[in-house]
Amino acid sequence: MNELQSSKKEYLIIAVCGILAGLFGAILVKYGNPKNMGFCIACFIRDTAGALGLHTAAKVQYIRPEIIGLVLGAFGTALFRKEFKPRGGSSPITRFVIAFFVMVGCLMFLGCPLRMTLRIAGGDLNAIVGLAGFIVGILIGIIFLKKGFSLKRAYSQTAVEGGTMPVVQIALFILLIAAPAFIYFSAEGPGASHAPVLLSLIAGLTVGGMAQLSRLCMVGGIRDFVLFREKRLLIGFLVLLATAFIINLCLGNFNPGFTGQPIAHNDGLWNFMGMLLVGYGCVLLGGCPLRQLVLSGEGNSDSAITVLGLLVGAAFCHNFGLASSADSVTSAGKIGVIIGLCVITIIAIINTKKSKA
Amino acid sequence: MIDTCGLSCPEPVIMVKKAMESGEDSYTVVTDNRTSFENISRFANHQGFSVSSENKGDTYTIYLERKK
Does residue B50 sit at the A interface (CB-CB below 8 Å)? Predict the structure, then answer.
């Protein structure tokens, strides 16, 4: 295959991935997921944390099959393509801490970068403010990348280390279906709004598989364009946005405005700051929460640790009142975001090698 | 030789980009995952290099030659 054909094929794959993610994002809402939340990695990990009793916010507890599907879809595709490579050891605890604060930022804004995109597609103008913060955060992260920031090398690991995350997802699926008494399921609120299990699982499997194939990453698109003028991942981001926008228009779900948006607040400063923290942290982690799930399915235990950081961060946010609600942001959340920015900056400085004299 | 093994996105490409600032006509890059291999190859193509590679197990050796 020549270079032009290869390049065309890559663009086609990322575009198809963007279309499927946007399409399933809209379908999942039509069949029961909260509005503008066909996919939200942060919200869904938070809901799963609640279902496992890691926090007690009664309205956000449900084992989300989309997360299970995303990891297992990536796992299956990686196995099929011989890309399942257990590896890890690249600053795992540092990654955990960064991921923890990325979740603090997500729950300040009320969404991960993927939901931010779906919120924009639904007409939520607060998400455009979030996007501005997200871009600024990415740009700050890029400054450190250019100066030599690194979380150091990862090394080969055992199959058990790489396979744990997919196995955990199967266990979660069994818990979801068996629904034992110790698993919490919301009776009302966002946690009670969900599409049928099978549809959610298929959506996750499909998008997870395609995201493994295409390397779709909400952070990578903007980052690679700024760093290398590389457009491929950005095209995935834009196609996803356009697809969800068109479907929302067709279904009458496009309602432009700042107020009255589903599961969103309109505090501009903290929408901006929350997503700034997310963009900044995700650049240092090497990918957005979606990408971390996909990599954990490929056997990357550093990404598995990152997902655990997101999980614990979500539980902490709800146990200690950091998470925003549709009505307002909280003082604890604001303090959490500021601490997060400080901690991530310290990590960035310490892990940036001094240029040789 | 530029050794990018074990480094995560986008560090390998940044290393290659920085190395290219030296203005040499050829570089050899080693990586141990397909994503980095694809990203480095794509970047080098856009920078006007021809790309050839060898793959042994998990290791990719990428040869970049500046197109005349």
Answer: no
